[in-house]
Amino acid sequence: MKRNSLYRISTIVFMFTGFFLRVIWFQKRNPGKMDPATQAKWEDLLRKIAFTYKRKSLQLEGLLIKLGQFLSARADVVPQVVIQELTDLVDQVPAVPWDLAKQVLESEWEAPYGSVLHKISEKPVASASIGEVYKAYLHTGEEVAVKIQRPGIEKIIRADFRAIRIVCWLAAKFTKIGKTADLPALYREMTYVIGDELNFKQELKNGEYFAQRYQDNADLYIPRYYGAHCTRRVLVMEWMEGARINDYAYMEQHGIDRAEIAVKLFNAVAEQLFFEGKFHADPHPGNILVQPDGRIVLIDFGMVGTIKKQDAAQIQGVVEGLVLKDFSRVIESLEKLRFLLPHANRSELERVLELVVQFYEDEDMANVDYELVQHITDDIQSVMRQQPIQLPSEFIFLGRAVSTFIGVLYGLNPQIDLMEVGKPIINEWLSKNGGDQAGVGGGSSGTWKTVQKYALDIGRQLLKLPRQLSESLEEPRRRREWDKVKQKNQFLHEVYTSRKRYAFATALMGLAVAGVGYYFVADQYLLWGGGGLALVSAFWYRSSAVKHLRWIEELK
Question: Which residues form the Protein kinase domain (predicted)?
Answer without folding.
Answer: 119-492
